[in-house]
């Protein structure tokens, strides 16, 4: 009789675990499809999200700066605001570690955007210039 109850408990537990696993897999699959479609429709070469999940607009709002126009931003202004806000939110001075990390991620996001735009512009300039190998005529 006890073996029947134990077997029944194991079967019910396995069924619950199996359903939960299948649902988690479906959600992960849908999430990856959404991320791929967002990456495909992105206007830049990067995703709209970095590891922290901040968009460029959110990063600009956090640091209270204008978004980079054509990949160019006033990085001195960004760094100045970053330093001021980062120091104001220092946990040893009674600030918030959460806010401090958001400020750091915002600066990193803006720097990433500017860096990628600069690299794209350099690549475009190199393609316009063309490939001109050095040819030695004396050989």
Explain the overall architecture.
By secondary structure, the chain is mainly α. Helices cover 68% and strands 0% of the residues. The N and C termini lie far apart (95 Å). The model is unreliable at 43-48 (pLDDT under 50).
Mean pLDDT: 84
**Low-pLDDT segments:** 43-48
Number of helices: 4
User: In this structure, how is the largest beta sheet organized?
Assistant: none
N-to-C SSE series? HHHH
Number of strands: 0
How much helix is in the residues?
55-70%
* DSSP strand content: under 5%
Q: Tell me the distance between the termini.
A: 95 Å
What form results from the Cα inertia axes? flat
Integer-rounded radius of gyration: 26 Å
Secondary-structure-based class equals mainly alpha
List keywords for this structure.
mainly alpha; 139 residues
Write the layout of secondary structure elements.
Layout (H helix, E strand, L loop, with lengths): L1 H39 L15 H8 L11 H14 L8 H33 L10
In short:
The chain has 139 residues and is mainly alpha-helical.
């Amino acid at each position: 009789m006890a073996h029947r109850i134990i077997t029944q408990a194991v079967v019910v537990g396995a069924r619950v675990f199996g359903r939960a696993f299948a649902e988690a897999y479906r959600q992960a699959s849908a999430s990856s499809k959404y991320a791929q479609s967002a990456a495909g429709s992105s206007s830049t070469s990067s995703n709209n999200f970095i590891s922290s999940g901040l968009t460029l607009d959110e990063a600009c709002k956090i640091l209270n700066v204008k978004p980079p126009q054509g990949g160019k931003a006033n990085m001195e202004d960004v760094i100045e605001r970053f330093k001021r806000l980062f120091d104001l939110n220092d946990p040893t001075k009674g600030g918030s570690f959460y806010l401090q990390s958001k400020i750091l991620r915002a600066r990193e996001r803006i720097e990433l955007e500017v860096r990628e735009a600069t690299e794209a512009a350099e690549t475009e300039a190199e393609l316009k210039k063309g490939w001109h190998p050095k040819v030695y005529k004396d050989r």
